[in-house]
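Researcher: Structure prediction, please.
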Amino acid sequence: MSTTFAVAASMAMAAPSTAALTPPNIDALLSVDGAVSHVGEFSPEVARLVKGAGIAAKERALASYWTPERMRSARPMEKMISATTVKELTASSRASRPQGEPFTVPPAAPIELAALPAISSAATDMTISSTQPLYPIGHPVARTIGKVFFTQKGEDYVCSAGVVNATGKSLVWTAGHCVTTLDANGKRRWSSNFTFVPNYHNGSAPYGHWPALIQYADSNWVLNNDYKDDVGAVLMPRNSLGQRIQEVVGGMGITFGQPLQYTWAFGYPAGSPFNGETLWKANSPASDAGASIIYMENNMTGGSSGGYWLIQFNGNTGLINGHNSFVLDTVPGRMYSPYYGLATKNFYLSVESLTV
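Model: Predicted structure follows.
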């Protein structure tokens, strides 16, 4: 019997887009070793919503396009890949073990956290292993993680993502396939109308809409569609107040070269039985799948891709050491991630100092 894998997030073909955000140093920001980049763009429909100049006009255009109703209706699209592809990858003798000395960046608090109302929400009774943490607005996890919405080939899709501590204070961390994928003809496509909504909850955007300035994906993901390198990052511009995103919401720490250990996963699953409207959490030990791919017991569905995995989690902060990448349709309740070794470390180091 053949086996297939399903990508646990939004995947589709891209549409032509216009109205890119282009800072003066765009060439330097696009030229990054070990990563393939693409300028964030608006589709013609969203470009027509931009009234005036500057980032505030683009924030308003995104908020006008991504209404609560449109955000709720944005859908994950699970892409199936053949068992042969993944079997060849995970059959490698390379174990997912530490490579060199561990490298760790600690969590970072925001410069000043504005007082915001708490979220009122009742827990959902579902016969699944994941749980709703029901964090109030402003909780260190809730404010650093959120949903990303984007358009591909005229359709609206959704993933999860989180702010990672970086010297440039402008970096959102996600899965590579949340920023770029291949269409049915094997052509590389990038997302347009990309917006990050920190602390998303039931259609609300308490920290606003953050457009993608530049999208980055690990070069091996782009060249080979290799799931051990399914890693992406998005450079955010300063908001209309001149603030960088990490200054507003903080950033989780990140670590590489660690032995496998107990893990907490977060994300916004949108595929049944979930609806994508609230944050969910799963926790279990991480295990080795081989060839720099790891897994954990985590039954989140499409839309959760890019949601970070934390180790050494203390209830408020932890260290990103994986993310929701793909699921195996024949093994319900198991989520896979790239192992955060040398290759992922190099990708992070190539983009973490970028800022505008």
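Model: Residues 1-7, 9-18, 79-84, 119-128 have pLDDT under 50 and may be disordered.
Researcher: Thanks, that helps.
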